[in-house]
Write a structure and sequence with these properties.
26-stranded parallel beta sheet; about 20% strand; 59 strands; AAA+ ATPase domain-containing protein; P-loop_NTPase; leucine-rich repeat; 5-stranded parallel beta sheet; about 1150 residues; nucleotide-binding; ATP-binding
């Protein structure tokens, strides 16, 4: 009876339990799926981050934060999932499910699923951004007293709050641009400005180009490519993002007034921190632009001029006769630095008769302008007409543009500029040689890239003056916006170079019978300009055509003598038969052009003289039809573009035809078909002098030298002769190959002597270099950049231990990694040591060291010979150190018996040029610096430090080690499980008679503290009589839950330069300055520069300072207090803030902070209504 009554209840209970368990099981399964989805997304984002870092981008803080949250949440979710198999999931009886534990876990899992869903919603259009310019290395007039004085005058004017625009004016060649560049370097070094941006305006004003230059140096890109007005609005927003941020905009080489608004610079209501520096030959232009102060740069006096000239021309003081002639030559340059430099470099190592001849030429020059006459002297003394012709070709390009040497190669080839150059390779070598010679005599400057050059604007003007007479006759215009330029001398032109700022209508027929070179380009974002059908009918002498972003929608008649035809970025509505009659054509490039038609073999058989063919279409026929290349027996360079998803028979004929090209020495292709690539290389790899071969790079530079990138191939393929040959020649090599477990050095027998950049990903190698094998003497001799990513079995870079470096004067150790400038290591799971000490001593040129997510890494360098450390290990050129998520990391340097012990991070290591130190997630370090273990002078140049989530770190610096940070300018501290004080002054020894010693942290300008859950003090036990933070400008404290005040009242006079104060979400803070009071303090405290105070979400905050001081804020214009419910008044004494414009007091819906402001302008005793608050 009882059983019958109980059974239905038992059945229902069982059903309920089963349903409950089933639901809980589904929740756990759902969590597993979500964790996998999150992990997949994290890997995708991390790949993007790694790529961004390789491209020198700064990772956005929200991306770093997202990755950190993902890692933390995944760890928590894994704990939940692991608990589902734990014995606690069962009750003690019969192993049945433990309902209580299951309920708790499923509830926890549901929370994790919701948190994961929120993270999965995160989307990043881009993970990184270009870093704004922070420092420059520029040398010009450092030792010239008059220039130092002028530079000081300019800097002083820029510091004047009443002056927003400053002008630099002077003669051509007097050094205005050099002066502006040196000022830029100086103000960045002195931190007078947070950002500096510079653009050349020039005679041909190109608004889009100027905007791009300014944006580029400010570290952002325009989404709008063509709309000048929209771009101006975006630039204006960027310049006004923070009204207090100090930004200097330099506009160089103005020829006439321009409307700043069209660029994106406010003419009225300009942001307070924005200053503008102009340079112009004409003082009236600077005045018209609104410059209140104009600094005129004069020519050098005779003494300075000769000292400058003597240094340039390397004259010996022992040769009195030459010295006397040299002084007269220098006098003819009239104190103009450009003239002095050009002439001086022309006459280096010249005999006396050459000096006398130069003096005669300068004195009898027909040119009145002494700069031009000096350039003429250098021009006339060039080694050959080839040098002069190549220099004139450079003047065809817009001012300040980096001129690709490859463009000069193609022009020179088409114009047959050089004698005895039968091949394109010989032409390229000759072009590089002449370019180097021209740079040597200062007629050319280095470009923005390694493969480019530039012309000084004055030298460009001279070249154009030469090219407007005699045999040349150039027409050069880069500001065309309405119509084709009319000119009477059309027939005489030998070269025309035009840039269209708008989509203009071309003349129907170009009547230039002597024209040999035509260069026309349409600015990015502008609708492409159409080429009329009969446009080139009357240009039968034309040898070179270079069109960029134009349209040829129907066949046009071309000169049969055409040798170079570059149609890049063009839209072509023509078939290849269009080129069929060009029997002399040697160079044909179609880079990023659209050719939406097919073509067959019989259309191109006439291109038998072709030496270079670039088929990297934006849209075009791929693959090539059978027989396409067979008639091109002289082809030296072939750029095939992207080859994906092609059929077997298509691969076969391409392989055969490429192998038939006996003259081929350059090849470009992107393909993911490894077998196809191997067969393609089999017949040509040994011949290749230049190559760009990749399996995954969709966007590669137009010009290249020797680049090889292989991804996800069978590791055995790396031993194939074709691949080994290319790896041996490569300057840039990227390998992502799972399964290769031999030392990396075995991939090339000669030790990669040509390699400059090496990226390794997923390799299973334990070492890059293994002492067990033979080591080439020139191993990695020229390597400059090394990246190691996700090498899960890597133990150490090199297990070779050379003899102590002081006893080694030759052999491998003096060359190994000698030129290495950058090391990046990420996700190398078992690496404990990066390299042994004898290898570390070879890294004399290392500038950047970045290590991420290597969980077992303990030390950068260790002495494997177990010698006692008696002297510091020096990295003399290391500037940037970034260590992230290295939970086992102890320090930079250790001995074997000390590995695992906690020591100072910078232990026995000298870093005299380190500028930036970033450490994040270093769970084992307790100290960063120590006077006993960190050599004095080691961090002397350290100006930036970021410390994040180092859970055993107890302070940033303590006692006398604080003095090591004498040049620290910015400090960011985030998190820290044991960090209870930032700077602990206990035990500090100072000589109070030494002015330098009593100023501690005197260069610190920005301090940010976030998420300091255990932080109790920012400073502790500051001795009386010393000054701290006297140059601090920005102070930010957020989410520091144990701080009761920021600083003691005795330090209140230290903050004379403080400009912004931001405190938020600090639950225990009651006052900004604490209660303890020092005897003899003044009754009024002046915060001279403080302009903005923001106090937000401080539940226990009562007042700024409880002492009965009069607080004087002469510059304060914003006071914002939000959600501070305990506050009753701002201060105990009087508040004097004569410039205060905004008072915002909010507590969400209810305002509970009655504030009393006693100001010169009157008193405000009641808070504003809610409608007045933001």
């Amino acid at each position: 009876m009882a059983e019958a009554i109980a059974r239905p209840f038992a059945d229902k209970l069982a059903d309920y339990a089963i349903a409950k368990i089933s639901r809980q099981f589904k929740i756990i399964q759902n969590l597993r799926t979500k964790v996998q989805d999150l992990e997949n997304k994290r890997n995708d984002v991390q790949d993007s981050v790694d790529e961004a870092k390789r491209n020198a981008l700064v990772i956005k803080s929200e991306v770093d934060a997202w990755l950190k949250k993902v890692d933390d949440l995944k760890k928590e979710a894994d704990e939940v999932l692991n608990s589902t198999t734990n014995s606690e999931m069962q009750c003690l009886c019969l192993g049945c499910p433990n309902m209580k534990t299951r309920y708790s876990l499923s509830k926890n899992a549901t929370k994790k699923i919701a948190a994961i869903d929120k993270l999965l919603e995160g989307k990043f259009e881009e993970v990184g951004k270009r870093a704004p310019l922070k420092s420059l290395s520029y040398h010009g007039f450092e030792d010239l007293k008059t220039r130092i004085s002028k530079k000081r005058d300019i800097t002083k004017a820029l510091e004047d709050t009443a002056i927003s625009i400053v002008g630099i004016c002077g003669l051509p060649g007097v050094g205005k641009t050099t002066m502006a560049t040196e000022v830029m370097t100086q103000v960045l070094k002195d931190k007078l400005f947070d950002d500096v941006s510079m653009a050349v305006v020039s005679k041909d004003v190109d608004i889009i180009r100027i905007q791009d230059k300014l944006a580029d140096m400010l570290g952002f890109e325009f989404k709008e490519k063509t709309n000048e007005i929209a771009r101006a609005g975006r630039l204006k927003e960027r310049l006004a993002q923070n009204n207090k941020k100090r930004i200097l905009v330099i506009l160089d080489d103005l020829w006439t007034d321009i409307n700043l608004e069209t660029l994106g610079i406010s003419s009225l209501n300009r942001p307070e921190g924005l200053k503008i520096l102009l340079t112009s030959r004409f003082e009236q232009v600077c005045i018209g632009m609104g410059a209140l102060t104009n600094i005129k740069v004069e020519a050098l006096d005779s003494n300075e001029a000769f000292a400058f000239f003597e240094n340039i021309s390397k004259i010996s003081n022992d040769d009195t006769q030459l010295l006397e002639i040299a002084k007269q030559v220098a006098e003819e340059c009239k104190g103009l630095p450009l003239a002095l430099e050009v002439v001086g470099k022309t006459l280096i190592n010249s005999e006396l008769y050459a000096w006398e001849d130069a003096l005669n030429q300068l004195r009898n020059s027909q040119l009145e302008d002494k700069v031009y006459s000096s350039i003429e002297l250098s021009y006339n003394n060039l080694k050959s007409d080839e040098h002069r012709s190549l220099l004139l070709l450079c003047s065809l390009f817009p001012e300040d543009e980096s001129i690709p040497i490859e463009s000069l190669v193609r022009y020179a080839r088409g114009l047959e500029l050089f004698k005895n150059t039968k091949t394109l390779l010989q032409t390229r070598n000759r072009t590089h040689t002449i370019s180097d010679n021209l740079k040597g005599c200062h007629l050319l400057l280095p470009g923005y890239t390694e493969e480019g050059v530039k012309l000084h604007d004055v030298i460009r003007d001279f070249c154009l003056s030469i090219a407007s007479k005699g045999e040349h006759w150039y027409m050069v215009k880069h500001d065309l916006v309405t119509e084709w330029p009319e000119h009477n001398a059309h027939e005489s032109y030998s070269a025309i170079s035009l840039t269209f700022q708008e989509a203009i209508r071309l003349t129907s027929r170009l009547r230039c019978g002597n024209l040999k070179l035509l260069r026309m380009q349409c600015r990015w974002g502008v609708r492409k300009v159409d080429i009329p059908e009969n446009f080139l009918v009357d240009t039968q002498e034309l040898a070179v055509i270079d069109f960029f972003r134009l349209q040829i929608l129907s066949p046009i008649q071309l000169s049969k003598g055409l040798r170079t035809l570059c149609l890049n970025g063009c839209v072509l509505g023509i078939g290849m038969s269009f080129f069929g009659s060009l029997k002399n054509l040697e160079i044909l490039t179609l880079f990023l052009s659209s050719l939406p038609v097919d073509f067959s073999r019989d259309e191109v058989v006439e291109l038998s003289n072709l030496k270079l063919l670039d088929l990297r279409f934006l849209e075009g026929p791929c693959p090539l039809p059978p027989g396409f290349l067979l008639g091109m027996k002289k082809l030296e360079e072939l750029y095939l573009g992207d080859y994906f998803d092609i059929r077997y028979e298509e691969k076969e004929h391409i392989i055969q035809e490429v192998s038939s090209l006996k003259a081929l020495n350059s090849l470009q292709i992107v393909t993911d078909d490894t077998n196809f690539l191997m067969q393609l290389l089999q017949g040509c790899s040994e011949k290749l002098e230049k190559f760009q071969i990749s399996q995954h790079h969709p966007f590669l530079p137009e010009h290249f030298r020797r680049f090889l990138s292989l991804e996800n191939i069978d590791p055995n393929m790396l031993s194939e002769p074709g691949i080994k040959s290319l790896m041996r020649k490569s300057e840039k090599l990227s390998l992502s190959v799972k399964g290769w477990n031999n030392p990396v050095i075995e991939l090339a027998e000669d030790g990669f002597i040509n390699l400059k950049s090496l990226t390794l990903k997923l390799l299973d190698s334990e070492y890059l270099i293994n002492a067990a094998g033979s080591i080439p003497s020139d191993i990695f001799r020229n390597l400059e950049s090394l990246e190691m990513i996700e090498m899960s079995r890597l133990k150490e870079i090199c297990n070779v231990n050379f003899p102590r470096v002081e006893h080694v004067t030759r052999g491998v150790s003096e060359r190994l990694f000698h030129n290495l400038k950058s090391i990046y290591a990420s996700d190398c799971d078992i690496m404990k040591i990066m390299f042994c000490e004898s290898v570390a001593k070879c890294l004399v040129n290392l500038e950047k060291l970045i290590i991420h997510s290597c969980p077992l890494l303990e030390v950068v360098s260790v002495d494997t010979q177990e010698n006692e450390i008696t002297e510091p290990l020096s990295f003399p050129n290391l500037k940037v150190v970034q260590l992230r998520d290295l939970k086992s990391f102890v320090n930079f340097r250790s001995q074997p018996n000390a590995v695992g012990l906690r020591q100072t991070l910078l232990n026995k290591v000298t870093l005299p040029n380190m500028e930036k130190l970033t450490i994040c997630g270093l769970g084992s370090i307790e100290k960063i610096l120590s006077v006993e273990e960190t050599p004095s002078g080691s961090p002397d140049r350290l100006w930036g430090m970021e410390v994040e989530n180092c859970d055993n770190l107890v302070n940033i610096a303590r006692s006398n080690s604080i003095k090591l940070l004498k040049n620290l300018e910015t400090l960011v501290v985030v998190g820290g499980g044991a960090l209870n004080v930032i700077f602990d002054f206990e035990g500090l020894n100072v000589n109070k008679d030494n002015e330098e010693e009593i100023s501690i942290l005197g260069q610190l300008k920005s301090l940010a503290l976030r998420n300091g859950d255990y932080l109790v003090h920012i400073t502790r036990m500051v001795p009386k009589g010393i000054r701290v933070f006297q140059n601090l400008k920005q102070l930010e404290v957020e989410n520091c839950g144990r701080l009761r005040y920021l600083f003691s009242a005795s330090m209140i006079n230290s903050f004379v330069c403080l400009e912004t104060l931001y405190v938020r979400s600090c639950d225990e803070i009651e006052e900004i300055f604490g209660r303890e009071e020092e005897e003899g303090m003044a009754s009024n405290i002046v915060f001279r520069e403080l302009r903005s105070i923001k106090l937000m979400d401080l539940p226990r905050f009562k007042m700024f300072c409880s002492h009965n001081y009069e607080l004087v804020f002469p510059s304060l214009d914003l006071l914002r207090i939000v959600n501070c419910p305990e506050g009753t008044k701002f201060c105990s004494g009087q508040l004097n803030a004569p410039k205060l414009k905004e008072v915002q007091i909010e507590n969400y819906e209810v305002l509970t902070f009655p504030i009393s402001l006693d100001c010169d302008a009157g008193s405000v005793h009641n808070p504003p209504s809610s409608s007045d608050c933001e």
